[in-house]
TrEMBL record:
Biological source species: Halomarina rubra
Keywords for this protein: ATP-binding, Cell membrane, Ion transport, Membrane, Nucleotide-binding, Translocase, Transport
Protein name: Nickel import system ATP-binding protein NikD
UniProt cross-references to Pfam families, sorted A to Z: ABC_tran (PF00005), oligo_HPY (PF08352)
Membrane topology: Peripheral membrane protein
UniProt EC number: 7.2.2.11
Biological classification of the source: Archaea, Methanobacteriati, Methanobacteriota, Stenosarchaea group, Halobacteria
Record-annotated ABC transporter domain positions: 7-273
Length: 372
């Protein structure tokens, strides 16, 4: 047993080179996943969650490219981008090749579950056959044994009558059942880490609850770690040990789940929390987050949240905050990127009028740079 995390993401950067310009979809994120831990990646649509997970799996499609950072899995560099002599990003010598990634990592070490099960399941083949083929491809077993494992896995994830359902087509399963099949597929090769990209978003609340219970059981039984992507902090509270909150390509707060909910530091996390139902709140107290997330192609200067932040001040428009360690407990790390936690004059700066402070009226400085 080592102290090294199972997965370590350091300064990961992924960009899309489009005709309109460069989209900095993931812009220098760092986080860790320890053995047996469920780590959440949360944020609104467009925050960069899916690009982050596909970067870790090295499944970014053109015009996208990982342009910087390192991802270390069990001591192996699955991503390691350095600057070449021409100034362009290039893989280091230590980084696994595409073939090594395919043969050694994807499926049998790290598995991914996508938001839409129909993306992962082929509609023209029977569910059992797809599962069996996947097992044969990734494990050293023959067809008959792979079939047995497939049926066992279907039973394990709660598919009733798995022998019979083995011969069903994907469209004969409900959404929740299809998602169970994907979990079975992810588990089939006994990976140490499963990356789940919004696996319950398309499901109704009851089925979502069942899937979450299933994941808890499986985590305990197989000691699998998870990266759990969601835009729903309610799900985070149910399932995660640690949470990373993303905004416009960056992680702006990361903490143990209890600290995130009860000792919230970042105004964006605060706003996210205000927008979800909690046991200690009435529905009337819920407030949707004001404004829309700006385009990643041309993010706001300084703190990227300053156009929507109720606490924004002039300094927030100029200064780009970096993650600060604000941990109080010795064991749990709590990090936040907000100028309030840096000594660069937040206290003395003038308030900014932002989308969240419209009703403050004039006298404030407009987030665009004009005096209101
Ligand atoms: N193929 C692509 N070409 C150009 N830009 C892209 C591409 N894929 C993603 N992006 C951009 O990258 C940013 C991050 O997208 P991503 O899909 O990771 O968001 P997300 O947090 O997963 O959102 P959602 O909750 O909607 O799934 C967005 O600005 C998106 O427009
Ligand atoms: S840096 Fe300023 S704008 Fe950004 S979250 Fe903190 S207070 Fe708000
Ligand atoms: Mg996504």
């Amino acid at each position: 047993m080592t102290d090294e995390p199972l997965l370590k993401v350091e300064n990961l950067q992924t960009q899309f080179f489009t005709e309109e310009g460069t989209v900095r979809a993931v812009d220098g994120i760092s986080f860790e996943v320890n053995e047996g831990e469920i780590v959440g990646l949360v944020g609104e649509s467009g925050a960069g969650k899916s690009v982050a997970t596909s970067s870790i799996m090295r499944l970014v499609e053109t015009p996208g490219q990982i342009v910087g950072g390192t991802v270390t899995y069990k001591g192996t560099k699955i991503v390691d981008i350095e600057e070449g002599p021409d100034g362009q990003p290039r893989p280091s010598e230590e980084m696994l090749t595409d073939e090594e990634m395919r043969e050694q990592i994807r499926g049998n070490e790290i598995a991914i579950i996508f938001q839409d099960p129909m993306e992962a399941l082929n509609p023209v083949f029977k569910v059992g056959a797809q599962l069996r083929e996947f097992i044969e491809l990734n494990r050293d077993v023959g067809s008959a044994e792979a079939r047995e494992i497939a049926v066992d896995m279907l039973r394990e994830v709660g598919i009733p009558e798995p022998v019979k359902r083995y011969d069903s087509y994907p469209h004969q399963f409900s959404g929740g059942m299809r998602q169970r099949v994907l979990i079975a597929m992810a588990l089939a090769c006994e990976p140490s880490l499963i990356i789940a990209d919004e696996p319950t978003t398309a499901l109704d609340v009851t089925v979502e609850g069942q899937i979450i219970d299933l994941v808890h059981d499986l985590e305990a039984k197989y000691d699998t770690s998870f990266v759990w992507v969601t835009h729903d902090l309610g799900v985070v509270a149910e399932i995660c040990d640690r949470v990373n909150v993303m905004y416009l390509g960056e992680i702006i707060e990361s903490a143990d789940v209890d600290d995130l909910f009860h000792d919230t530091k970042h105004p964006y996390t605060e706003a996210l929390l205000q927008s979800i139902p909690r046991p200690d709140q009435t529905v009337e107290e819920l407030e949707p987050i004001v404004g829309v997330m700006p385009e990643a192609i041309n993010p706001p200067s300084g703190c990227r949240f300053h156009t929507r932040c109720p606490d924004a001040r002039t300094v927030c428009r100029e200064f780009h905050p970096t993650e600060q360690d604000v941990s109080e407990a010795v064991t749990a790390t709590h990090r936040v990127a907000c100028v309030k936690y840096e000594s660069i004059g937040y206290e003395d700066a003038r308030p900014l009028e932002t989308e969240a402070t419209d009703d403050f009226g004039s006298g404030l400085i407009d987030a665009s740079g004009e005096d209101a």
